[in-house]
Amino acid sequence: MSRQVFLYDPPDRFIAGTVGLPGRRTFFLQASGGGRTTSVALEKTQVAALAERIDELLDEVVRRTGGSAPVPAVAPSEMTDTAPLDAPVEEEFRVGTMALAWDAEEQRMIVEAQAIVELDAESEEDLAEAEERLLQDETNGPPMLRVRLTGTMARAFAKRAMEVVNAGRPPCPLCSLPLDPEGHVCPRQNGYRRGAA
To answer: Using an 8 Å Cβ cutoff, are 100 and 109 in contact?
Structure first.
């Protein structure tokens, strides 16, 4: 079976969003354009890491070009997208590996999210080699979402993604673990049940 690549160059919309209540949310990347929508599931930590790395890469692009690249320092307010994910949200795959790159010639950020792949191997070295071969296989590799964004679109994506990540449950002031509406057993209080504020 040949590799399925969901390409958006550029998308009309590329966002991070969630389905569900805080504490039980499922995180998604969603790209739409040309009458189609692709949604891929991932972990909260992956969304946070992607947003942070996009901002860091854009900052580096600005630094290396002396400010001549078409990349804003912050996300422009007119690019703010607070709308929910487009329904229906149908998961194409769960993300395992992500990659970022800057195409200097086209002045575009490239975001790739590839499906989780399970491999059997005798050793860690064999596993690493098998993973690398599979991820580089353009014909038979895992499904992939590939999105090409302008610098402005990438900044707006990163800003919204961090807002989505931070919109979850408030942290316990003592242990920083998330507080459920019913409270949580705080390890810093030797198991004393602390309620949400």
So the answer is: yes
- H or E stretch covering 111: strand 108-115
Considering only CA atoms, which of 7, 6, 120, 101 is closest in space to residue 57?
A: 101
Distance CA 66, CA 47 (A): 29
161 φ, ψ to 5°?
A: -60, -45
- Mean pLDDT, rounded, for 19-29: 89
How far, in Å, CA of 22 to CA of 9, rounded? 32
Please name the residue that has the structure tokens 């800057």. Answer: 102
What is the DSSP secondary-structure string of 56-91?
HHHHHHHHHHTT-SS--SS--GGG---PPPPSS--E
Distance CA 96, CA 117 (A): 7
Percent of the chain with pLDDT over 70: 87
pLDDT of 141 over the 70 cut: yes
